[in-house]
Amino acid sequence: MKLNLYMSDDSMYVEAIGRIILDECEHLKTIMLPYMGKGVSQVYLNLNNVDFIDSAGLGALVSLKMTASRNKARLVLLAPSKQVMEILMVSKLDSIFDIIDGSDAELIKASLAIEENLVKEAEANGAAGLSQADASAAHHSQAAVHLNKGQKEQIDQWCRTALELMRQGDYEKAAAEYQKVLELDPEYLPALNNLAILYEKKPSWYTKAMEQWEKVLHVSQKLGDQKHIARAEKHLSSLREID
User: Fold this and answer.
1) Quick one: DSSP state of residue 128?
2) Same domain, 81 and 149
């Protein structure tokens, strides 16, 4: 199993890839627990790329949830794969976990899983984790290099506010927050992506959504970001079918 761990202020995002089974449960806890201390209020564990979880793995998830609760944090399972969701339902654990999927899960991922937030990559075989600085040097950062620290912090704040407004269903105000980001940095890909998803929330905004996904596609192609290219093309295709 591979784990990618991202930190952004009071939020922790972990993407698990592979299988969560007995031999790898300790690995999961060893990577996550040191970061689940004071100051972290939201812990997101993405299970979209986990194809199997056994009883020991379920126990590890329960243990992580208990640790989060003790620290007054919320553990959320993001976009569990079909196989994992079936196991959670059969074990009746789906009722005790906060689970977010669909476009809301995609929004959270787009907001947090960016290179500048990456603090650790680890394989179950004990491969060394990358520091945030190492990750930024090894990969092309999506953050614009011309922004100063204060501007980047302001962008982070606007994005967090937009995400919270999105969860509350206040789409107009959420869109306004993302537009502030794009006025400061028109090519900030996370905001471009999230605004495009946001515009899909209301049928009357579908034209705006298409225009926004076109911008995502353009910037993604410019950066050579294949994941965002594929995502933009997928959403554009779906919207064109509706149109």
Assistant:
1) P
2) no
Same domain for 184 and 66? no
Domain hosting 129: range is 2-136
Cα angle value 89/90/91 (rounded, 5°): 90
- The dihedral sign for the CA sequence 161, 163, 165, 171: positive
Rounded CA gap, 120 and 134, in Å?
10
Looking up tokens 């994005």 gives 159
Q: Are residues 75 and 111 in the same domain?
A: yes
pLDDT tens, N- to C-terminus, the chain (243 residues): 899 999 988 899 999 999 998 888 888 988 899 888 778 999 999 999 998 998 889 999 999 999 999 999 999 999 999 999 999 998 889 999 999 999 899 999 998 998 888 988 876 543 333 333 333 333 333 444 467 778 888 888 898 888 888 878 889 999 999 999 999 999 888 889 889 998 988 889 999 999 999 999 999 998 888 888 988 999 999 888 876
